[in-house]
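Hey, resending since the last one bounced:
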Amino acid sequence: MNFKLGHLAKACLLLVVAGGAIASSHREAPSIAGSPRVDGTDFYMFRSYEGVAADGSGGRSDYVTILANYQPLQAPYGGPNYFQLDPNALYEIHIDNNGDAKEDITFQFRFKNALKSIPLAIGSASVPIPLIQAGAVSNLNDANLNVNETYTVGIVRGERRKSLATPITKTSGSATFEKPVDYIGTKTIADYATYAGKHIHTMTIPGCPTGKDQGRVFVGQRQEGFAVNLGTVFDLVNAPASVLLDPANKDAAGMGGKHIIQKANVTTIALEVHKDCLASGGDTVIGGWTTASLRQARLLNGAPPSGNDKAEKAGGAWTQVSRLGNPLVNELVIGLPDKDKFNASQPKDDAQFLTYVSNPTLPALLSVVLGADVAPKNLPRTDLLTTFLTGITGVNKPTTPTPSEMLRLNIAVAAVPAANQNRLGVAGNALAGGTDNAGFPNGRRPKDDVTDIALVAMVGGLCAINGSTDKLKLNSVPGVPSLTSKCDGTALTSTMSATGPNGLPNAANIHDAVDQATVPFLPGFPYLNTPNAGSATY
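The C-alpha coordinates again:
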Protein backbone atom coordinates (compact mmCIF):
# COMPACT_ATOMS: atom_id res chain seq x y z
CA MET A 1 0.00 0.00 0.00
CA ASN A 2 1.39 3.43 -0.83
CA PHE A 3 1.59 6.13 1.85
CA LYS A 4 -1.28 8.22 0.47
CA LEU A 5 -3.71 5.32 0.46
CA GLY A 6 -2.57 4.25 3.91
CA HIS A 7 -3.16 7.82 5.11
CA LEU A 8 -6.72 7.73 3.79
CA ALA A 9 -7.44 4.37 5.40
CA LYS A 10 -6.12 5.51 8.76
CA ALA A 11 -7.95 8.82 8.61
CA CYS A 12 -11.17 7.03 7.73
CA LEU A 13 -10.63 4.70 10.66
CA LEU A 14 -10.42 7.64 13.04
CA LEU A 15 -13.52 9.33 11.67
CA VAL A 16 -15.67 6.24 11.86
CA VAL A 17 -14.62 5.41 15.39
CA ALA A 18 -15.56 8.96 16.32
CA GLY A 19 -18.96 8.60 14.75
CA GLY A 20 -19.76 5.35 16.43
CA ALA A 21 -21.30 2.74 14.25
CA ILE A 22 -23.49 -0.23 14.84
CA ALA A 23 -26.97 0.89 13.87
CA SER A 24 -28.46 3.88 12.21
CA SER A 25 -30.49 6.55 13.97
CA HIS A 26 -33.75 4.72 14.60
CA ARG A 27 -35.47 5.74 17.85
CA GLU A 28 -32.12 7.01 19.13
CA ALA A 29 -33.28 9.48 21.81
CA PRO A 30 -35.93 9.26 24.55
CA SER A 31 -38.10 12.13 23.30
CA ILE A 32 -38.00 11.41 19.58
CA ALA A 33 -38.91 7.75 20.17
CA GLY A 34 -42.42 9.01 20.96
CA SER A 35 -42.67 11.11 17.78
CA PRO A 36 -41.84 8.78 14.88
CA ARG A 37 -43.22 11.08 12.16
CA VAL A 38 -40.39 13.54 12.84
CA ASP A 39 -37.68 10.99 13.68
CA GLY A 40 -34.85 11.19 11.15
CA THR A 41 -33.31 7.76 10.53
CA ASP A 42 -30.66 8.11 7.81
CA PHE A 43 -29.06 10.93 5.84
CA TYR A 44 -27.25 10.41 2.54
CA MET A 45 -25.42 12.92 0.33
CA PHE A 46 -23.43 11.90 -2.76
CA ARG A 47 -22.58 12.76 -6.36
CA SER A 48 -25.37 11.30 -8.46
CA TYR A 49 -24.27 8.14 -10.26
CA GLU A 50 -27.36 7.52 -12.39
CA GLY A 51 -26.19 6.73 -15.92
CA VAL A 52 -22.55 7.75 -15.35
CA ALA A 53 -19.63 6.24 -17.27
CA ALA A 54 -16.73 4.40 -15.65
CA ASP A 55 -14.78 7.68 -15.42
CA GLY A 56 -17.66 9.37 -13.58
CA SER A 57 -18.80 11.49 -16.51
CA GLY A 58 -22.14 11.70 -18.28
CA GLY A 59 -25.56 10.82 -16.94
CA ARG A 60 -26.49 12.83 -13.86
CA SER A 61 -22.87 13.27 -12.75
CA ASP A 62 -23.15 17.05 -12.37
CA TYR A 63 -25.78 16.65 -9.66
CA VAL A 64 -25.73 15.92 -5.94
CA THR A 65 -28.39 13.64 -4.47
CA ILE A 66 -29.55 14.23 -0.88
CA LEU A 67 -31.78 11.71 0.90
CA ALA A 68 -33.34 12.28 4.31
CA ASN A 69 -35.28 9.35 5.77
CA TYR A 70 -37.98 9.68 8.44
CA GLN A 71 -40.39 7.41 10.34
CA PRO A 72 -38.30 4.36 11.24
CA LEU A 73 -39.21 0.69 11.00
CA GLN A 74 -42.55 1.01 9.21
CA ALA A 75 -44.46 -2.26 9.03
CA PRO A 76 -45.66 -2.52 5.41
CA TYR A 77 -49.05 -3.76 6.61
CA GLY A 78 -49.46 -0.75 8.93
CA GLY A 79 -52.96 0.28 7.81
CA PRO A 80 -55.49 1.63 7.67
CA ASN A 81 -53.82 5.07 7.98
CA TYR A 82 -50.26 4.09 7.11
CA PHE A 83 -47.43 6.62 7.46
CA GLN A 84 -48.28 10.15 6.40
CA LEU A 85 -45.79 12.88 7.26
CA ASP A 86 -46.78 15.45 9.87
CA PRO A 87 -48.58 18.55 8.51
CA ASN A 88 -47.72 20.36 11.77
CA ALA A 89 -43.96 19.80 11.29
CA LEU A 90 -41.22 21.55 9.35
CA TYR A 91 -38.75 19.20 7.67
CA GLU A 92 -35.46 20.77 6.58
CA ILE A 93 -32.23 19.89 4.77
CA HIS A 94 -29.34 22.23 5.51
CA ILE A 95 -26.16 22.91 3.52
CA ASP A 96 -23.05 24.63 4.90
CA ASN A 97 -20.88 25.60 1.93
CA ASN A 98 -18.18 27.71 3.59
CA GLY A 99 -17.16 25.60 6.60
CA ASP A 100 -18.50 27.92 9.31
CA ALA A 101 -20.89 25.30 10.80
CA LYS A 102 -23.93 27.44 9.93
CA GLU A 103 -26.52 26.75 7.28
CA ASP A 104 -26.05 28.74 4.04
CA ILE A 105 -28.85 26.99 2.14
CA THR A 106 -31.92 25.36 3.68
CA PHE A 107 -34.57 23.40 1.81
CA GLN A 108 -37.87 23.45 3.72
CA PHE A 109 -40.69 20.95 3.32
CA ARG A 110 -44.26 21.39 4.57
CA PHE A 111 -46.95 18.73 4.10
CA LYS A 112 -50.71 18.80 3.68
CA ASN A 113 -53.05 15.82 3.88
CA ALA A 114 -56.30 16.72 2.11
CA LEU A 115 -59.28 14.63 3.21
CA LYS A 116 -61.99 13.99 0.60
CA SER A 117 -64.41 12.07 2.84
CA ILE A 118 -65.42 9.80 -0.04
CA PRO A 119 -68.99 8.63 0.70
CA LEU A 120 -70.95 5.48 -0.03
CA ALA A 121 -74.73 5.34 -0.25
CA ILE A 122 -75.85 3.15 2.62
CA GLY A 123 -79.62 2.96 2.45
CA SER A 124 -80.82 6.55 2.31
CA ALA A 125 -77.64 7.92 3.93
CA SER A 126 -74.38 9.09 2.35
CA VAL A 127 -71.68 7.79 4.69
CA PRO A 128 -67.91 8.53 4.48
CA ILE A 129 -65.76 5.41 4.11
CA PRO A 130 -63.33 4.42 6.91
CA LEU A 131 -60.31 3.77 4.66
CA ILE A 132 -57.83 5.99 2.82
CA GLN A 133 -58.66 4.33 -0.51
CA ALA A 134 -61.94 3.51 -2.21
CA GLY A 135 -60.51 1.40 -5.04
CA ALA A 136 -57.43 0.81 -7.16
CA VAL A 137 -54.86 3.62 -7.30
CA SER A 138 -52.49 4.49 -10.16
CA ASN A 139 -52.38 8.25 -10.77
CA LEU A 140 -51.44 11.57 -9.18
CA ASN A 141 -54.21 12.71 -6.83
CA ASP A 142 -56.07 9.55 -7.77
CA ALA A 143 -59.85 9.83 -7.47
CA ASN A 144 -59.92 6.67 -5.36
CA LEU A 145 -57.63 8.16 -2.70
CA ASN A 146 -59.56 9.42 0.30
CA VAL A 147 -56.49 11.38 1.47
CA ASN A 148 -54.28 13.13 -1.07
CA GLU A 149 -50.86 14.05 0.30
CA THR A 150 -49.09 17.09 -1.13
CA TYR A 151 -46.19 19.29 -0.08
CA THR A 152 -44.45 22.56 -0.77
CA VAL A 153 -40.71 23.17 -1.01
CA GLY A 154 -38.98 26.45 -0.16
CA ILE A 155 -35.38 27.61 -0.09
CA VAL A 156 -33.81 29.93 2.48
CA ARG A 157 -30.37 31.43 1.94
CA GLY A 158 -28.59 32.36 5.17
CA GLU A 159 -29.91 31.69 8.66
CA ARG A 160 -33.05 29.61 8.38
CA ARG A 161 -35.18 31.60 10.85
CA LYS A 162 -34.19 35.11 9.72
CA SER A 163 -35.63 35.03 6.21
CA LEU A 164 -38.78 33.75 4.59
CA ALA A 165 -38.45 30.82 2.25
CA THR A 166 -38.64 31.47 -1.48
CA PRO A 167 -40.98 28.92 -3.08
CA ILE A 168 -39.49 26.25 -5.30
CA THR A 169 -41.83 25.31 -8.15
CA LYS A 170 -42.25 22.55 -10.64
CA THR A 171 -40.91 23.42 -14.07
CA SER A 172 -44.58 23.72 -15.02
CA GLY A 173 -44.91 26.58 -12.52
CA SER A 174 -47.00 24.87 -9.82
CA ALA A 175 -45.80 25.19 -6.22
CA THR A 176 -47.70 22.08 -5.10
CA PHE A 177 -45.95 18.71 -5.29
CA GLU A 178 -47.80 15.40 -5.03
CA LYS A 179 -46.68 12.61 -2.71
CA PRO A 180 -47.64 8.97 -3.42
CA VAL A 181 -49.68 7.03 -0.92
CA ASP A 182 -47.75 4.26 0.82
CA TYR A 183 -47.62 0.79 -0.72
CA ILE A 184 -50.93 -0.45 0.68
CA GLY A 185 -50.70 -3.68 -1.30
CA THR A 186 -50.72 -5.19 -4.75
CA LYS A 187 -54.49 -5.12 -5.17
CA THR A 188 -54.74 -1.40 -4.42
CA ILE A 189 -51.60 -0.49 -6.41
CA ALA A 190 -50.74 -3.12 -9.02
CA ASP A 191 -47.49 -1.47 -10.22
CA TYR A 192 -46.07 0.62 -7.40
CA ALA A 193 -42.79 1.40 -9.16
CA THR A 194 -44.60 3.05 -12.07
CA TYR A 195 -47.04 4.79 -9.74
CA ALA A 196 -44.25 6.17 -7.54
CA GLY A 197 -42.27 7.25 -10.62
CA LYS A 198 -45.09 9.63 -11.54
CA HIS A 199 -44.25 11.50 -8.33
CA ILE A 200 -40.67 12.34 -9.31
CA HIS A 201 -40.99 16.03 -10.06
CA THR A 202 -38.67 18.32 -12.01
CA MET A 203 -38.26 21.62 -10.20
CA THR A 204 -36.77 25.09 -10.69
CA ILE A 205 -34.63 26.40 -7.81
CA PRO A 206 -34.47 30.20 -7.41
CA GLY A 207 -31.02 31.74 -6.97
CA CYS A 208 -29.05 29.02 -8.72
CA PRO A 209 -26.72 29.81 -11.64
CA THR A 210 -28.45 30.14 -15.00
CA GLY A 211 -28.84 26.77 -16.63
CA LYS A 212 -28.10 25.01 -13.35
CA ASP A 213 -31.36 25.78 -11.55
CA GLN A 214 -33.16 22.59 -12.52
CA GLY A 215 -33.42 19.69 -10.11
CA ARG A 216 -35.63 16.80 -9.08
CA VAL A 217 -37.59 16.03 -5.94
CA PHE A 218 -39.42 12.99 -4.63
CA VAL A 219 -41.06 12.33 -1.27
CA GLY A 220 -42.50 8.93 -0.57
CA GLN A 221 -42.20 5.52 1.00
CA ARG A 222 -39.11 3.41 0.24
CA GLN A 223 -37.75 0.06 1.37
CA GLU A 224 -35.38 0.42 4.34
CA GLY A 225 -31.92 0.41 2.77
CA PHE A 226 -29.72 0.24 5.86
CA ALA A 227 -28.10 -3.12 6.60
CA VAL A 228 -27.62 -4.01 10.25
CA ASN A 229 -28.19 -7.02 12.47
CA LEU A 230 -30.27 -4.77 14.69
CA GLY A 231 -31.63 -7.02 17.42
CA THR A 232 -28.40 -8.99 17.80
CA VAL A 233 -26.23 -5.88 18.06
CA PHE A 234 -28.25 -4.22 20.80
CA ASP A 235 -28.45 -7.47 22.75
CA LEU A 236 -24.80 -7.00 23.78
CA VAL A 237 -23.63 -8.19 20.33
CA ASN A 238 -25.29 -11.56 20.82
CA ALA A 239 -23.50 -13.66 18.19
CA PRO A 240 -20.53 -16.05 18.43
CA ALA A 241 -17.09 -14.95 17.32
CA SER A 242 -17.06 -17.83 14.84
CA VAL A 243 -19.78 -15.98 12.94
CA LEU A 244 -18.65 -12.38 13.42
CA LEU A 245 -15.02 -13.02 12.45
CA ASP A 246 -15.54 -15.36 9.49
CA PRO A 247 -15.89 -13.60 6.09
CA ALA A 248 -17.86 -16.57 4.82
CA ASN A 249 -20.61 -15.61 7.29
CA LYS A 250 -20.76 -11.90 6.46
CA ASP A 251 -24.42 -12.31 5.45
CA ALA A 252 -25.29 -15.21 7.75
CA ALA A 253 -28.20 -13.32 9.31
CA GLY A 254 -29.12 -11.47 6.15
CA MET A 255 -30.46 -14.38 4.13
CA GLY A 256 -29.46 -12.83 0.83
CA GLY A 257 -30.31 -9.34 1.99
CA LYS A 258 -33.67 -10.15 3.60
CA HIS A 259 -32.63 -9.10 7.06
CA ILE A 260 -35.14 -7.84 9.60
CA ILE A 261 -35.14 -4.11 8.96
CA GLN A 262 -35.03 -4.60 5.20
CA LYS A 263 -38.54 -5.99 5.62
CA ALA A 264 -39.55 -2.54 6.91
CA ASN A 265 -40.08 0.74 5.05
CA VAL A 266 -39.15 4.36 5.63
CA THR A 267 -40.34 7.68 4.22
CA THR A 268 -37.74 9.44 2.09
CA ILE A 269 -37.35 13.11 1.24
CA ALA A 270 -35.14 13.09 -1.87
CA LEU A 271 -33.53 16.01 -3.67
CA GLU A 272 -31.25 16.15 -6.69
CA VAL A 273 -29.57 19.54 -7.10
CA HIS A 274 -26.84 20.72 -9.47
CA LYS A 275 -23.50 20.76 -7.64
CA ASP A 276 -22.83 24.37 -8.67
CA CYS A 277 -26.07 25.41 -6.96
CA LEU A 278 -24.72 24.12 -3.63
CA ALA A 279 -21.07 25.25 -3.76
CA SER A 280 -19.69 28.61 -2.68
CA GLY A 281 -16.67 30.31 -4.21
CA GLY A 282 -13.72 28.00 -4.67
CA ASP A 283 -14.52 25.59 -1.82
CA THR A 284 -15.60 22.22 -3.16
CA VAL A 285 -16.58 20.73 0.22
CA ILE A 286 -20.14 21.06 1.46
CA GLY A 287 -21.62 19.91 4.74
CA GLY A 288 -25.16 18.66 5.16
CA TRP A 289 -27.64 17.59 7.80
CA THR A 290 -31.38 17.21 8.18
CA THR A 291 -33.70 18.39 10.95
CA ALA A 292 -37.36 18.30 11.86
CA SER A 293 -39.09 20.93 13.98
CA LEU A 294 -42.46 21.24 15.70
CA ARG A 295 -44.30 24.26 17.02
CA GLN A 296 -43.39 25.10 20.59
CA ALA A 297 -46.95 24.74 21.89
CA ARG A 298 -49.70 22.24 21.25
CA LEU A 299 -53.33 22.21 22.37
CA LEU A 300 -55.20 18.93 22.26
CA ASN A 301 -58.88 19.11 21.39
CA GLY A 302 -60.99 16.78 23.49
CA ALA A 303 -63.80 17.04 20.95
CA PRO A 304 -62.09 17.49 17.58
CA PRO A 305 -64.25 18.59 14.64
CA SER A 306 -64.68 16.47 11.55
CA GLY A 307 -61.68 16.54 9.25
CA ASN A 308 -58.12 15.27 8.93
CA ASP A 309 -55.44 16.17 11.51
CA LYS A 310 -57.86 18.31 13.53
CA ALA A 311 -57.20 16.78 16.95
CA GLU A 312 -54.61 19.39 17.91
CA LYS A 313 -53.78 23.05 17.42
CA ALA A 314 -50.10 23.95 17.21
CA GLY A 315 -48.53 27.37 17.66
CA GLY A 316 -45.46 29.28 18.77
CA ALA A 317 -41.91 29.26 17.46
CA TRP A 318 -40.46 26.33 15.57
CA THR A 319 -38.58 24.02 17.96
CA GLN A 320 -36.08 21.53 16.57
CA VAL A 321 -36.70 17.98 17.78
CA SER A 322 -34.58 15.87 15.40
CA ARG A 323 -31.11 16.24 13.89
CA LEU A 324 -29.05 13.89 11.73
CA GLY A 325 -25.82 14.26 9.75
CA ASN A 326 -23.32 11.42 10.05
CA PRO A 327 -24.93 8.08 10.89
CA LEU A 328 -24.88 6.78 14.45
CA VAL A 329 -23.65 9.86 16.31
CA ASN A 330 -26.58 10.40 18.65
CA GLU A 331 -27.23 6.69 18.94
CA LEU A 332 -23.79 5.47 19.99
CA VAL A 333 -21.59 8.46 20.81
CA ILE A 334 -23.78 10.92 22.72
CA GLY A 335 -24.55 9.80 26.28
CA LEU A 336 -28.12 9.08 27.31
CA PRO A 337 -28.51 12.30 29.38
CA ASP A 338 -27.76 14.50 26.34
CA LYS A 339 -29.49 12.71 23.48
CA ASP A 340 -32.50 15.04 23.46
CA LYS A 341 -30.12 18.02 23.74
CA PHE A 342 -28.19 16.86 20.67
CA ASN A 343 -31.40 16.53 18.66
CA ALA A 344 -32.26 20.14 19.54
CA SER A 345 -28.77 21.51 18.86
CA GLN A 346 -27.05 23.12 15.88
CA PRO A 347 -23.59 22.23 14.50
CA LYS A 348 -22.15 25.62 15.49
CA ASP A 349 -22.68 24.68 19.15
CA ASP A 350 -21.09 21.22 19.03
CA ALA A 351 -18.26 22.15 21.41
CA GLN A 352 -20.65 21.18 24.21
CA PHE A 353 -20.40 17.52 23.12
CA LEU A 354 -16.60 17.30 22.81
CA THR A 355 -16.14 15.02 25.82
CA TYR A 356 -18.27 12.31 24.23
CA VAL A 357 -15.87 12.27 21.27
CA SER A 358 -12.58 12.74 23.12
CA ASN A 359 -13.48 10.10 25.73
CA PRO A 360 -15.75 7.72 23.79
CA THR A 361 -17.51 4.97 25.71
CA LEU A 362 -18.22 2.65 22.77
CA PRO A 363 -14.73 1.07 22.53
CA ALA A 364 -14.87 0.26 26.25
CA LEU A 365 -18.35 -1.22 25.88
CA LEU A 366 -17.18 -3.33 22.96
CA SER A 367 -14.28 -4.56 25.07
CA VAL A 368 -16.77 -5.84 27.65
CA VAL A 369 -19.20 -7.56 25.29
CA LEU A 370 -16.52 -9.01 22.98
CA GLY A 371 -14.35 -10.22 25.84
CA ALA A 372 -11.21 -8.46 24.57
CA ASP A 373 -9.56 -5.16 25.40
CA VAL A 374 -9.98 -3.09 22.24
CA ALA A 375 -10.26 0.35 23.86
CA PRO A 376 -7.38 2.69 22.84
CA LYS A 377 -5.41 4.09 25.78
CA ASN A 378 -4.31 7.48 24.39
CA LEU A 379 -7.00 9.55 26.13
CA PRO A 380 -8.35 12.10 25.54
CA ARG A 381 -8.79 11.10 21.90
CA THR A 382 -7.70 14.40 20.35
CA ASP A 383 -7.16 12.50 17.12
CA LEU A 384 -10.88 11.74 17.02
CA LEU A 385 -11.78 15.35 17.72
CA THR A 386 -9.67 16.38 14.76
CA THR A 387 -11.10 14.03 12.17
CA PHE A 388 -14.63 13.94 13.53
CA LEU A 389 -15.10 17.71 13.61
CA THR A 390 -13.28 19.05 10.56
CA GLY A 391 -13.19 16.48 7.78
CA ILE A 392 -10.15 14.70 6.36
CA THR A 393 -7.41 16.65 4.59
CA GLY A 394 -7.37 15.78 0.91
CA VAL A 395 -10.73 14.06 1.13
CA ASN A 396 -13.54 16.18 2.59
CA LYS A 397 -12.07 18.97 4.72
CA PRO A 398 -13.32 22.51 3.93
CA THR A 399 -10.78 25.27 3.38
CA THR A 400 -11.48 26.86 6.78
CA PRO A 401 -13.55 24.44 8.89
CA THR A 402 -15.27 25.30 12.13
CA PRO A 403 -15.35 22.15 14.29
CA SER A 404 -18.82 20.65 14.05
CA GLU A 405 -20.65 17.41 13.31
CA MET A 406 -22.18 17.06 9.84
CA LEU A 407 -21.89 14.84 6.78
CA ARG A 408 -19.23 16.36 4.49
CA LEU A 409 -18.96 15.81 0.73
CA ASN A 410 -16.27 16.94 -1.67
CA ILE A 411 -18.26 17.65 -4.82
CA ALA A 412 -15.03 17.76 -6.88
CA VAL A 413 -14.66 13.98 -6.47
CA ALA A 414 -16.28 12.29 -9.44
CA ALA A 415 -19.20 9.90 -9.05
CA VAL A 416 -18.53 6.16 -9.31
CA PRO A 417 -20.98 3.84 -11.09
CA ALA A 418 -22.87 1.53 -8.75
CA ALA A 419 -21.14 -1.56 -10.12
CA ASN A 420 -17.70 -0.13 -9.30
CA GLN A 421 -18.45 1.19 -5.81
CA ASN A 422 -16.49 -0.19 -2.85
CA ARG A 423 -18.98 -0.92 -0.08
CA LEU A 424 -16.35 0.03 2.53
CA GLY A 425 -16.08 3.54 1.10
CA VAL A 426 -12.83 5.50 1.23
CA ALA A 427 -11.18 3.01 3.59
CA GLY A 428 -12.06 0.02 1.44
CA ASN A 429 -10.85 1.86 -1.64
CA ALA A 430 -7.56 2.73 0.02
CA LEU A 431 -6.99 -0.80 1.20
CA ALA A 432 -7.85 -2.24 -2.20
CA GLY A 433 -5.73 0.30 -4.09
CA GLY A 434 -8.79 1.34 -6.12
CA THR A 435 -10.20 4.58 -7.45
CA ASP A 436 -13.41 4.97 -5.42
CA ASN A 437 -13.07 7.99 -3.12
CA ALA A 438 -16.72 8.97 -3.58
CA GLY A 439 -18.06 7.00 -0.60
CA PHE A 440 -18.33 7.27 3.17
CA PRO A 441 -17.02 9.30 4.94
CA ASN A 442 -16.82 11.49 1.82
CA GLY A 443 -20.58 11.82 1.86
CA ARG A 444 -22.60 8.65 2.10
CA ARG A 445 -24.15 6.49 -0.62
CA PRO A 446 -26.85 3.85 -0.10
CA LYS A 447 -24.37 1.03 -0.77
CA ASP A 448 -21.74 2.22 1.75
CA ASP A 449 -21.61 -0.35 4.57
CA VAL A 450 -21.02 2.01 7.48
CA THR A 451 -21.74 -0.79 9.97
CA ASP A 452 -18.94 -3.06 8.82
CA ILE A 453 -16.53 -0.15 8.28
CA ALA A 454 -17.01 0.82 11.88
CA LEU A 455 -16.82 -2.66 13.35
CA VAL A 456 -13.49 -3.26 11.61
CA ALA A 457 -12.24 0.09 12.87
CA MET A 458 -13.45 -0.48 16.44
CA VAL A 459 -11.35 -3.60 16.92
CA GLY A 460 -8.32 -2.19 15.12
CA GLY A 461 -8.71 -4.17 11.93
CA LEU A 462 -7.56 -1.34 9.70
CA CYS A 463 -4.38 -0.99 11.74
CA ALA A 464 -3.78 -4.70 11.31
CA ILE A 465 -4.27 -4.46 7.56
CA ASN A 466 -1.91 -1.49 7.34
CA GLY A 467 0.62 -3.49 9.33
CA SER A 468 1.93 -0.34 10.94
CA THR A 469 1.48 2.01 13.86
CA ASP A 470 3.63 4.71 12.29
CA LYS A 471 2.88 8.20 13.57
CA LEU A 472 0.39 10.15 11.52
CA LYS A 473 0.24 13.95 11.78
CA LEU A 474 -3.40 15.05 11.83
CA ASN A 475 -4.97 18.46 11.37
CA SER A 476 -5.15 20.77 14.37
CA VAL A 477 -8.55 21.85 15.65
CA PRO A 478 -8.90 25.48 16.79
CA GLY A 479 -9.07 25.56 20.57
CA VAL A 480 -7.76 22.01 20.96
CA PRO A 481 -4.05 21.23 21.43
CA SER A 482 -2.35 19.81 18.38
CA LEU A 483 -1.54 16.12 18.60
CA THR A 484 0.79 13.85 16.69
CA SER A 485 -1.29 10.71 16.78
CA LYS A 486 -0.99 7.27 15.25
CA CYS A 487 -3.14 4.47 14.00
CA ASP A 488 -3.42 3.47 17.58
CA GLY A 489 -1.65 0.26 18.52
CA THR A 490 -1.64 0.57 22.30
CA ALA A 491 -4.72 -1.63 22.60
CA LEU A 492 -3.74 -3.99 19.82
CA THR A 493 -1.17 -6.60 18.89
CA SER A 494 0.43 -6.21 15.50
CA THR A 495 -0.85 -9.60 14.36
CA MET A 496 -4.15 -9.45 16.29
CA SER A 497 -3.40 -12.93 17.58
CA ALA A 498 -5.72 -14.69 19.99
CA THR A 499 -2.85 -15.17 22.43
CA GLY A 500 -1.72 -11.57 22.47
CA PRO A 501 -2.48 -9.29 25.42
CA ASN A 502 -5.16 -7.39 23.51
CA GLY A 503 -7.23 -7.57 20.37
CA LEU A 504 -9.17 -10.18 18.45
CA PRO A 505 -8.01 -12.67 15.81
CA ASN A 506 -8.88 -11.85 12.21
CA ALA A 507 -10.11 -8.42 13.27
CA ALA A 508 -10.02 -7.07 9.73
CA ASN A 509 -12.76 -9.56 8.85
CA ILE A 510 -15.24 -8.57 11.56
CA HIS A 511 -18.79 -7.89 10.43
CA ASP A 512 -22.32 -7.88 11.81
CA ALA A 513 -23.49 -10.87 9.70
CA VAL A 514 -25.68 -8.66 7.49
CA ASP A 515 -24.04 -7.51 4.26
CA GLN A 516 -24.92 -4.08 2.86
CA ALA A 517 -23.86 -5.30 -0.59
CA THR A 518 -26.87 -7.62 -0.79
CA VAL A 519 -29.43 -4.83 -0.26
CA PRO A 520 -31.27 -3.97 -3.50
CA PHE A 521 -31.27 -0.36 -4.74
CA LEU A 522 -32.49 1.44 -7.83
CA PRO A 523 -29.93 2.48 -10.48
CA GLY A 524 -31.13 6.06 -10.38
CA PHE A 525 -33.05 8.72 -8.48
CA PRO A 526 -34.36 8.31 -5.78
CA TYR A 527 -32.00 5.27 -5.51
CA LEU A 528 -33.70 3.66 -2.49
CA ASN A 529 -35.75 0.65 -3.54
CA THR A 530 -39.50 0.29 -4.10
CA PRO A 531 -41.10 -0.28 -0.68
CA ASN A 532 -42.34 -3.59 0.66
CA ALA A 533 -46.01 -4.15 -0.13
CA GLY A 534 -48.63 -4.30 2.60
CA SER A 535 -49.94 -7.53 1.15
CA ALA A 536 -48.72 -10.13 -1.28
CA THR A 537 -50.35 -11.42 -4.46
CA TYR A 538 -51.83 -14.87 -3.93
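The CA atoms of residues 429 and 436 lie 6 Å apart.

Sorry for the duplicate.
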